[in-house]
Specification:
The protein is an alpha/beta fold. It has twelve helices and ten strands.
Length: about 260
C-alpha cells in the first residue's frame, strides 16, 4: 500500500520531467547575495527559529489561505526569526516557487526552499528564485542520489538541511558530511507526530558535531523546552505561526537561551 510520501514522490517525478521540458524558470539567471544560516547558528546563544510559510498540508488540509508570503515572512523576521521556510509544493501544500521569489524580494535573511527535491533541476530552480537553503529528505531517495544532490547543492553555494526520521536515516545523512540535520518529528508515511524522535536522535547529532533542527509538532513553550533539552540548536515551525492570534508573542517566547535550558 502506497504511503503519503510515495504519492508525493510520484507527483514530484512528473514535476521534474515538466521542469526539464520547460526551463522558463531558469531562462534568466539571477544572482542573489549569499545569506548563511550556518553562520547564524555558529554565533547563537539562543534558539534559532526557522519560521515557515505554509498554506496547507496533507495532514491538516487548509491552514491559512489568506496570508501573503512577503507580508507574513517579513513579520517573522521582525519578531525574531533567524530564517524563513517557504513551501513551494503546489499539489499537496498549495505553494509555488513564486512565493519564494516574493519572500526573497521582501526580506534580508536566509530562506529555505521547502519541497520534496529529487533532482538537480529543482535545486537550480530554488537557487534562481532566491533560496539559500534546500531540503533533502533521506527517506525520499537512495544513498547515492542523496550524496550526489548534496554535493551539487553545496557546489552551488547552497546550504542543505538534511532531514531524517530515524537512526538508520541519520547514519546515512551524516555520511554526506552534512552540518545541518533536521529531525522531523512527523512520520512521513502516516504523518503522525512524536517529539520523542528528536529526543532519541538529538544526542547522536550533537556527538557528530552537526547542528540540530527539530521539525514538526512544536506548538507550546513546553514543546520548545523539550527539544532544546535534547540538543536542538533551532526549530522549524509553520502551522503554529500561520495560525497565531498574536504572532509576536508566540514567536518571541520560543526564543529560549539554549545553553541554560539544556542544563536544566
Amino acid at each position: 500500500m502506497a504511503t503519503i510520501l510515495d504519492v508525493i514522490l510520484s507527483e514530484k517525478e512528473i514535476e521534474v520531467e515538466s521542469l526539464k521540458k520547460d526551463r522558463s524558470s531558469l531562462s534568466t539567471e539571477k544572482n542573489y547575495q549569499h545569506r548563511s544560516f550556518l553562520s547564524i547558528l555558529e554565533n547563537a546563544d539562543e534558539l534559532s527559529i526557522i519560521a515557515e510559510f505554509k498554506r496547507a498540508s496533507p495532514s491538516k488540509g487548509d491552514i491559512n489561505g489568506v496570508l501573503e508570503p512577503a507580508t507574513q515572512t517579513s513579520s517573522y523576521i521582525k519578531y525574531g526569526a533567524s530564517a524563513v521556510s517557504v513551501l513551494t509544493d503546489k499539489r499537496f501544500f498549495k505553494g509555488d516557487i513564486s512565493d519564494l521569489e516574493a519572500v526573497r524580494n521582501a526580506i534580508d535573511a536566509p530562506i529555505l526552499c521547502k519541497d520534496f527535491i529529487i533532482d538537480s533541476i529543482q535545486i537550480d530552480v530554488a537557487k534562481n528564485a532566491g533560496a539559500n537553503i534546500i531540503l533533502l529528505i533521506v527517506a525520499a531517495m537512495d544513498e547515492e542520489k542523496l550524496g550526489n544532490l548534496y554535493k551539487y547543492a553545496t557546489e552551488k553555494k547552497l546550504e542543505v538541511l538534511m532531514e531524517v526520521h530515524n537512526e538508520e536515516e541519520l547514519e546515512i545523512a551524516l555520511k554526506t558530511g552534512a552540518k545541518l540535520i533536521g529531525v522531523n518529528n512527523r512520520n512521513l508515511k502516516n504523518f503522525e507526530v512524536d517529539l520523542s524522535v528528536t529526543e532519541k536522535l538529538g544526542p547522536i547529532v550533537k556527538k557528530a558535531g552537526a547542528y540540530l533542527i527539530s521539525e514538526s509538532g512544536i506548538k507550546t513553550l513546553d514543546d520548545v523546552k523539550r527539544v532544546v533539552k535534547a540538543g536542538a540548536n533551532g526549530i522549524l515551525v509553520g502551522e503554529t505561526f500561520m495560525m497565531a492570534e498574536n504572532l509576536a508573542n508566540t514567536l518571541q517566547e520560543m526564543k529560549l537561551p539554549i545553553h541554560q535550558v539544556a542544563k536544566k
